Records
---
Amino acid sequence: MNLKEWAAVNGVGYSTSRQWFLDGKLPVPARRVGGLILVDEPVPAATGLTAVYARVSSADQKPDLDRQVARVVTWAAGQGLPVGRVVTEVDDDLVRDITEILTSMCA
């Protein structure tokens, strides 16, 4: 973001923030690009928990669902992501809907 926007967001006058930049006292990294002064604000670290989602298309694939969840949870733990919720779905409705559509088309 440019220095003028940064100053407005942080409640500092533009003249003050410009002087801080020139004096090397700006509290965030910034650089001059042409006539602009761009502020490189650090991206805040992600906080919270990770949700894991796994889905299979029918109830007879339920063992596959358990393997998917285990694989994704293991990967998340390896990445240092704390898993707070596991969401699973067995999409029986899709199979039923397709069966009904095919039946009605054949009739």
Note: The longest helix spans residues 62-78.
---
Amino acid sequence: MHGPAMSSWLLMALCGVTGAYCLLRMRSGTEEQRRTARAEALMGFGMAAMAVPAAVITPPVWGWAVYVALFGGAAVRALWFARRNGHHLHHLIGSLAMVYMAVVMAAPGSGAASHGGHGGHQMAQAAGGLPLLTGGLLVYYAVYVLRSGVRLIPVAATADAGGGQVPGGRTWGARPELALACRLTMGIAMFAMLLTL
């Protein structure tokens, strides 16, 4: 997951801030909105942790198994809630993508496994994952990012239609345009992480 150190730091910061905003979103809204915010916070913080430059922290070999267990559990949870809300299918795909990246990073011969931690560019050269699966995930996230970006435009225009005031005195955690921006940000980050496989 690690290319040049600067891009890793930026990706880590972006995902961390997005995860923190999702925690803020958990304080308002309906139960379904809070559940979605929890899933997105987990994804944001998980992606931030995976993006930490290898020069800073070399996770133990068992660290990748923790990612697999954590996001495997998140995938099962997303599958359960997808019965009621189609957005959880996106969480399911995201969780499975995190499991896939962790498995690739831990695979023998990857930069991560052979250098005792996450190896990033060495991993991209050595292991690479399954090209068809990686390509499919890249296409999914490219479409998701474009779709989220298009959906963000009308929401921003609606919010500004009231003279810059947020209707109903909503808090930062209840702003739909910020929630969409978070999803867009995490989609872009996931796309960037998948590019390194």
Note: The chain has one domain: 5-195.
